């Protein structure tokens, strides 16, 4: 960042006459002004619109919107400081303490993640408001994900044999493409489908599997903790599967007794601290009594703060014992993978399957390994 741009963003819109703002920095300027123009108020300046009308005093719901939007604009190091400032400046304590105001807030996964990260900075009287907003988010996500997990883990599985029962659900798209390759027009590349294939199905037999969700609860993993708690609750309600839910940083907290209550899991979790994946994986290893019927799902960004060699050794022991190991890498806000690829590659070399995917795809992945 050049010196002129840095000073423009530092001084804010009051420097507009001498240091014009580039168009690409307008959103950054707006976010910074929304929070730090209060310093000018303390010196007697009024927050007025550029056209001279009205004030720029922030509303409470706008403050929550700012928290969500800033997460997409600023790096984590800057955002953590700004969120702490925002808690004090925006009056969010008052908003979350007002049940009627909470009802007006649009709840989203991003907002829930922000509240989880900043919960320790909020006043005690906001706990009901935080719980209510997180409950809204959980209900929406569970409604969307439950059918996918239920179908994948207990529903019909396709068999590679032909069926005359024609339905979209039973469509064998791979078989259909293969059967109609001879009908491709070489000029246009268009395929004329004359032979549509369908698959027969049968009920899954998903008996006596132990699924351990081992979830990194470092500060950057708020989204993953949220979706992991929801996934654990859905899986725990399915027949034939025992769920263990373990949250870790440099210590391990066994939340299995709350696995069916994602709200309580999230309200109890403590985001932050370091990361010792090796210690967490070793703890999970001690809980396994039937390795060949066990799946360990490690949900992390693979930024190991402890011994990488110990982590590789624990992974190798579990794989050699017959445990299915899935490494679910964290995703950024735009759903792009965000994880330490070097560490993940070392774990893949000793038996852990690594992928970065959304929770709905995770349901199918888990179903594949518990066939």
Automatic annotation (TrEMBL):
Coiled coil: none annotated. InterPro entries: LolB (IPR050458), Uncharacterised_CoxE (IPR008912), VWF_A (IPR002035), vWFA_dom_sf (IPR036465). Pfam families: VWA_CoxE. Gene3D superfamilies: von Willebrand factor, type A domain. Residues 208-367 form the VWFA domain. This is VWA domain-containing protein.
């Amino acid at each position: 960042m050049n010196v002129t741009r840095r000073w423009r963003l530092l001084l804010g819109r009051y420097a507009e006459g001498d240091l014009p703002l580039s168009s690409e920095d307008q959103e950054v300027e707006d976010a910074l002004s929304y929070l730090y123009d209060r310093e000018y108020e303390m010196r007697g300046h009024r927050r007025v619109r550029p056209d001279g009308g009205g004030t720029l005093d922030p509303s409470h719901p706008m403050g929550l919107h700012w928290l969500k939007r800033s997460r997409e604009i600023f790096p984590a190091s800057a955002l953590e400081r700004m969120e702490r400032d925002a808690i004090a400046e925006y009056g969010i304590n008052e908003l979350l303490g007002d049940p009627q105001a909470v009802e007006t807030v649009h709840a989203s996964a991003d907002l829930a993640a922000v509240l989880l990260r900043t919960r320790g900075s909020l006043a005690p009287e906001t706990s009901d408001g935080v719980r209510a907003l997180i409950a809204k988010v959980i209900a929406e996500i569970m409604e969307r994900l439950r059918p996918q997990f239920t179908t994948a883990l207990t529903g019909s599985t396709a068999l590679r044999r032909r069926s005359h029962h024609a339905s979209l659900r039973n469509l064998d798209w791979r078989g259909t493409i293969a059967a109609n390759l001879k009908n491709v027009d070489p000029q246009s590349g268009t395929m004329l489908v004359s032979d549509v294939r369908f698959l027969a199905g049968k009920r899954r037999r998903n008996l006596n599997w132990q699924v351990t969700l081992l979830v990194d609860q470092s500060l950057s993993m708020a989204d993953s903790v949220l979706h992991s708690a929801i996934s654990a609750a859905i899986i725990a309600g399915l027949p034939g599967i025992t769920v263990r839910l373990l949250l870790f940083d440099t210590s391990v907290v066994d939340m299995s007794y709350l696995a069916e209550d994602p709200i309580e899991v999230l309200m109890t979790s403590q985001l932050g601290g370091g990361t010792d994946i090796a210690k967490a994986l070793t703890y999970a290893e001690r809980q396994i009594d039937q390795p060949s019927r066990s799946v360990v799902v490690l949900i992390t960004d693979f930024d190991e703060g402890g011994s990488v060699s110990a982590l590789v050794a624990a992974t190798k022991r579990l794989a050699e014992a017959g445990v299915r190991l899935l490494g679910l890498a964290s995703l950024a806000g735009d759903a792009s993978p965000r994880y330490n690829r070097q560490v993940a590659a070392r774990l893949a070399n000793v038996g852990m399957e690594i992928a970065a995917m959304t929770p709905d795809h995770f349901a199918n992945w888990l179903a594949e390994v518990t066939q």
